[in-house]
């Protein structure tokens, strides 16, 4: 398993654009030159987590997710790499669960979407046309409202978890440093 992780990390290092390369881009350059969007701080990391989860779940279109998360990090001053990473929560394995959950939630809130049609479209491997017809029917309001609620709640929970984890990690490191300092004083 570690060989696979090492290969994926090596591939990412070769193919991911560097910040210096992004600074020379006409479109991304003004944002890439802002160092606060790339630093890992106690405020920017939870913001990046929240933005990445919000966009990653609500906009289930690959490619649009990372771009949307990066653009939303600019006004919210979130960490762009963390936001891009968090968009991968919605992947081919989790997308059907997210969609089914959002339709269920939309139906519970009074909108009407036929979830059995959703499952039959998934089972039969329906094409884009069939999905578009289904989305343009009564399913759209239930799906959009459900996605909005799920993504907002997930983003809020992600923000809190990232914030508490960051604070715990800082306290842990400070405590270890203090113990090391105290142990050094006792030996003298």
UniProtKB/TrEMBL annotation:
Keyword Transmembrane helix: yes
Pfam family membership, one: DUF2062
DUF2062 domain location: 26-174
Transmembrane annotation, as ranges: 49-71, 143-169
Record keywords: Membrane, Transmembrane, Transmembrane helix
Top-level division of the source organism's lineage: Bacteria
Cited InterPro entries: DUF2062
PANTHER family per UniProt: SLL0298 PROTEIN
Protein name: DUF2062 domain-containing protein
The species this protein was found in: Novosphingobium arvoryzae
Phylogenetic placement of the source organism: Bacteria, Pseudomonadati, Pseudomonadota, Alphaproteobacteria, Sphingomonadales
């Amino acid at each position: 398993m570690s060989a696979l992780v090492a290969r994926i990390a090596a591939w990412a290092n070769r193919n991911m654009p560097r910040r210096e390369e992004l600074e020379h881009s006409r479109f991304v350059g003004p944002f890439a030159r802002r160092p606060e969007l790339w630093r890992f701080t106690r405020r920017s990391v939870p913001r990046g987590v929240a933005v990445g989860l919000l966009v990653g779940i609500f906009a289930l279109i690959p490619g649009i997710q990372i771009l949307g998360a990066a653009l939303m990090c600019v006004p919210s001053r979130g960490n762009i790499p963390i936001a891009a990473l968090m968009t991968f929560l919605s992947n081919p394995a989790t997308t059907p669960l997210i969609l089914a959950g959002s339709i269920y939630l939309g139906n519970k809130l009074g909108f009407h979407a036929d979830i059995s049609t959703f499952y039959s479209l998934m089972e039969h491997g329906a094409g884009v046309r069939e999905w578009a017809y289904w989305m343009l029917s009564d399913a759209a309001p239930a799906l959009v409202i459900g996605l909005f609620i799920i993504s907002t709640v997930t983003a809020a929970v992600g923000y809190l978890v990232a914030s508490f984890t960051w604070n715990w990690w800082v306290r842990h490191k400070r405590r270890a440093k203090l113990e090391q300092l105290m142990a050094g004083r006792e030996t003298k």
